[in-house]
């Protein structure tokens, strides 16, 4: 029996033998499609190839694409665990033809794979075609020899695929596997549901273009896009009716069972299925740069994690468990998806931390939900307001509420929940607003198609002669721009670096025979088009003119220093904190750098100082910084660090620095990077970490300065120390000692002041203690002026001692608010309760209650002038208590 890993390998090798380029899976975070939350199909990374906006050096490809369907339009989250074939994470096997072969070859390749390579019985296979696709129908008869009763014509969207309302589209042909008459279920296209016929492969014949909705014209170079779910075909080949019984997922379920002590079959099988599936989604999303958070993709990830954690709780486990399953996942899938090995520690620590945090939320939410469902009849509906309160007050995800209700045969008032949600966050709702990447605006595709890619000369040159290829004003192409206008301008070549990889774009000047402009920013559009934002300062800039371009050299030198310092910082962090450190984001600017990393806990001061010391040591060594272009696979094999989730071409630029230590087989720092860097590490000058903070769960941010800004930062810090020392009449070297002296003096004065306030409790008339008999109980009261609330209790203790037996009350004010303390001697607490008395007094102060013990209670209120009223109210309440 083939394992899942062997099936994947066999699929890729088969198409590679048939002249298909094996293309690595693209990240789960789409880089070229702002309409998608996650990559959900194999064709996503080729979308711009199909539309003609991107060109690749091959016309046939094969992939095993990582996919996630959770959140957004395609959301299978809440079905996972309760069906045989729903997943949040799955692999999509696919072969693609970009204007090369078409229907006949696609059908031939598919048929030979499933029958000859995979060995599926021909009599168990049938195909569907679009209702009017006679070509496909005849080809299935000709190529596969399928009889007419095993080729089904189906109309509707199930057998016609479109990229959107406009763009490429075409009919589909699906291959189904027949489990036999002993399994219930009707054929494809029927209303008879069941699992007898299982779709295993979808072939899309992309032969039309839709210039407008409803219009179809033949494409000049039709293409092929296919998709086969790895888990589905593995289930068929391994003789399973449930995807979760294939070797890969069954292994995760059994590991979950071993840790929980609960069988992977029977009543709790859905929980083990959820845990296995959601663990995969969690690990792969984190490997591609998504971290749990409260918005966007991070919020979807947190929902996935918490749904799995709820099922861990359902198994009876009360300690974090999911992180213990990570080694099993890495062992099962890490050979093909090597990124799992790189992030194993990060995934483990983040899961452990998130599960620990969620435990309290889960316990509280489950109790409240249990209390509410107990009020409902069998099959009842939970009010939407209750579900929203669980979500809003307790942080209990609504999908968990829905999941639990489903298990108890109950429903959720969905409309009521959404109405409550809208009322609460109408202004802030943004579940997904897209990536906002203006880089893919249509105008820039048109410009690049005409002008081609911009040749970047900035690695070697600060100036260049160029030719103006296009001028764009407010999204529209124009022929020229005059003084006072701001436009976006494209040249055939440029020394200006376009913002990417965290490095900001260059600024500088542009001059032509007819005008001059100031370049205020440079951006990269559609991958390799450098777009200069230009303020025309004099004359006219026109398309077709020659131009002299010059960057701001001093600004660039500071950017170079900060970018190279970022590489040294990255490597120093990896060596100091561990290999789980991965870049999550960065900013490289002329005045500072910002570096976000995967790190589940705060970085200690000692670690930060050690990292800073290592970076400065590498700077002082003044070793060469080298850049080399090489094949991506060779670079990764040599040890170059790549950013998780980033899409690279087949050729990459590798930047090495920091020298090569004795015995090492690679430079100290080696990263895939397209940015600009110093020539030697000594050019960085000096490096200083200025700040470290948590950005999100599992993500820390480090801010630092280098080069001249680092010197300026140190000077400013020195000036601050000198000014502070002068103000405290100390030398800079003696500043800490002087501060400690002042702190000790302050503590002594605070103690003396507290003692003085205690003595005031026994002061005479004129605001002193007033003692009277209330129903036979001595009652001592005092209204004091500005006294901190924390000092009232010691004063009350002192009054109780002097009184011997009875009740004391002290009302005071502090910073515009009232405070109140009531004390009862121990011999009276059986009949008089200080808490009840202080609550009565609190109402007189405008407060809402109070708390404490029967012998001492405290309260407050917004009215500082009502102390006498509070004391009177307490006396009345005491009289009633004694009389009772």
From TrEMBL:
Keywords: Aminoacyl-tRNA synthetase, ATP-binding, Cytoplasm, Ligase, Metal-binding, Nucleotide-binding, Protein biosynthesis, RNA-binding, tRNA-binding, Zinc. Its EC number is 6.1.1.7. InterPro entries: aa-tRNA-synth_II/BPL/LPL, Ala-tRNA-lgiase_IIc, Ala-tRNA-ligase_IIc_anticod-bd, Ala-tRNA-synth_IIc_core, Ala-tRNA-synth_IIc_N, Ala-tRNA_ligase, Ala_tRNA_ligase_euk/bac, DHHA1_dom. Its main location: cytoplasm. Binds 1 zinc ion per subunit. Transmembrane segments: none annotated. GO terms for biological process: alanyl-tRNA aminoacylation; negative regulation of DNA-templated transcription. GO terms for molecular function: alanine-tRNA ligase activity; aminoacyl-tRNA deacylase activity; ATP binding; tRNA binding; zinc ion binding. It comes from the Bacteria. Residues 2-716 form the Alanyl-transfer RNA synthetases family profile domain. It catalyses: tRNA(Ala) + L-alanine + ATP = L-alanyl-tRNA(Ala) + AMP + diphosphate. It is found in: Cytoplasm. Residues 845-869 are annotated as: Disordered. PROSITE patterns: AA_TRNA_LIGASE_II_ALA (PS50860). Its cofactor is Zn(2+). Consists of three domains; the N-terminal catalytic domain, the editing domain and the C-terminal C-Ala domain. The editing domain removes incorrectly charged amino acids, while the C-Ala domain, along with tRNA(Ala), serves as a bridge to cooperatively bring together the editing and aminoacylation centers thus stimulating deacylation of misacylated tRNAs. Catalyzes the attachment of alanine to tRNA(Ala) in a two-step reaction: alanine is first activated by ATP to form Ala-AMP and then transferred to the acceptor end of tRNA(Ala). Also edits incorrectly charged Ser-tRNA(Ala) and Gly-tRNA(Ala) via its editing domain. Belongs to the class-II aminoacyl-tRNA synthetase family. NCBIfam families: alaS. This is Alanine--tRNA ligase. It comes from Limimonas halophila. The gene is alaS.
